Amino acid sequence: MPVPEEVRHALSRWCAERIPDAERERHRVGYTIQGADVTILDRRAPTYPELGAEWTSTPLARLHLAEDGTWSLLRPHPRDRWEPEATGPDPLLLLERVSTPQAPA
C-alpha cells in the first residue's frame, strides 16, 4: 500500500518543525519512503565538508502502513533490526514518541 500524498506532506512539515531555521545548515530531520515503510532520519552535515564527505543519516524511527490502514511505529534496535513500539490510525500522533537528537554545542 503506497503512502498517501497527504501523509507525505504532513511528514515533510513534521520533519521541518524539528530543527530551528538557524541550525538547518548543519542538522536536519528527513524521511525516506520504500513501499509502505517511512524511515525518519536524523541528518548531519559533514564535519569537514572540504573533504567532500556526504551528510550522515541515522534512523530515528520507522512507520509502517498496513493493508488495513493502521500505522505501526518501530524503533531501531542495536542489532540491525526494528522493534515495534506502538500502533494507531495517525502516523503523526505516533511520531510524538520520537525525540530528535540535539545538535552538539
Can you walk through the features of this model?
This protein is an alpha+beta fold and 105 residues long. It has one domain. It is 18% helix and 39% strand. The protein has 2 helices and 5 strands, in the order H-E-E-E-E-E-H. It has helices at 5-18, 91-95; strands at 27-34, 37-44, 56-65, 71-77, 81-88. Strands 1-2-3-4-5 form a 5-stranded antiparallel β-sheet. A hairpin with a 3-residue loop joins strand 4 (71-77) and strand 5 (81-88). The radius of gyration is 15 Å and the shape is globular.
The string of secondary-structure elements, in order, is HEEEEEH
| End-to-end Cα distance | 41 Å
Q: Radius of gyration over alpha carbons?
A: 15 Å
Biggest β-sheet description: 5 strands, antiparallel
Order of strands, widest sheet: 1-2-3-4-5
> What's the helix count?
2
Mean pLDDT: 91
What fraction strand?
A: 35-45%
Helix content: 10-25%
Uncertain stretches of 5 or more adjacent residues: none
Question: Total number of β-strand segments?
Answer: 5
Class derived from helix and strand content: alpha+beta
Q: Return the domain count.
A: 1
Oligomer: single chain
| Overall outline | globular
